[in-house]
Sequence to fold (292 residues):
Amino acid sequence: MAKALNGFAIDLGGTKLAAARFEANKLVEKAQMPTKADAPFEDLCAAMAMLLDQLGFCQGNRLGVALTGRIDQSGHWSAVNGGTLPKIKDIDVRNAFTNMFGTNLTILNDATAAACGEAHFGAGQGVSAFGYITISTGVGGGIVLNGQPVTSPNGLAGHIGFMRSPLGNAECGCGRFGTVESVAGGRAMAHQAHVAGFENLNAKMIFEAYLANEKWATEIISRAAQAIAIQIADLTSIFGLERVAIGGSIGLADGFLELISLSLSKEPDLFQPDVRCAALGSNSPLFGALCI
Ligand code: ADP
Ligand code: BMX
Fold:
């Protein structure tokens, strides 16, 4: 059973930091800034506190925090892909946030949060076996079975970006070779563009080049979508997924879902769940941070 959404939520991704205020299950105000990805923990805390302050947060108000990376059962936070947040390793985040923001607090992985948000308030409503995949700075995910997210003591459960892909051909910042994230994550796409001879491009620019029919960009974007489609079929074979929602700025970009669907249509019917865009758009992690 989802909690009513009243209070404040934070979503810290590898590229952007967002905060929101909720009243009676509605997002009423939102503030956002870029993530200083290579900054120390203290600077990230200061940025979160500043956004919350703008929204009228007072210590002790209900707060849900969704973070990119793994949060273990003792409340310690580590990047799994060390390239995304280089300074975040074994930080006692539960203790630090309790001191800063009060005890009325939930902390969870951003993609797990987004999966819960979608399951209870978005595209996963009415479905018992639901998956969410974000294609963003990295590739993250959450599986929600009968309304409950799949979690593990070390906080790694759901980190589907670190599954290997048959299309993988590069090292991943998590230490594995050929992961889905190394094919389809935003940072990985930027690296692929660099290898193709195009410097200093981010995934948004690569997507624009794809929309302008640039061959090199089409190869990067199509390969990413194909890797995600294969992954959806793989996850469906494990969890019997009925529906998968796609989020993240790359996942939600015009035409990406269609590319995934085209690749997925080549799989046998049994491995083709209903795939659609996240109904809450970029706000899925904010909803989910407060609802469990
Ligand atoms: P976060 O990872 O912080 O949650 P996003 O979901 O916005 O943030 O994902 C960031 C990635 O999405 C970056 O690689 C960025 O270049 C890319 N991106 C942002 N906007 C777009 C867009 N309109 N189309 C395609 N890619 C985008
Ligand atoms: C990575 C991993 C996940 C995260 C996912 C999406 C890190 C720092 N992050 O797979 O924990 O859920 O990216 O996160 O290891 P985002 O930064 O792309 O929003």
Q: What stands out?
A: The mean pLDDT is 97. The first strand starts at residue 7 and ends at 12. The chain has two domains: 7-113+284-291, 126-279.
